[in-house]
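task queued by scheduler; priority normal; single chain, no ligands, no partner chains; default sampling; output format set to structure tokens
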Amino acid sequence: MGWLRKLIGEPGPKMVRVAVARHQPEMELLMSLLHEAQIPARTQRTAGFDVPDMLAAGPRDVLVPEHLELDARAVIQPVIDEANAADVDPADDER
């Protein structure tokens, strides 16, 4: 059984989703923030959206090791809050 373990490798740390980027440029921004904070991360297309025709469009999950989840959220939360605030239409408040 030892040769099989060497072949497939040891399982890595459990990865958890800390954000869902709406498209590739947003995902790259979040990944660069995590990289600057020296937090290892990876991305994957959100389930149900893995369509090659979409290219840069479509949501992506940002995943980090479970033990770094709180650190990662602290790094990216201000950017997510700012993006959500920019999405609010001021005309909606007047209605």
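post-processing summary
- The chain has a mean pLDDT of 81.
- The chain has four helices and three strands.
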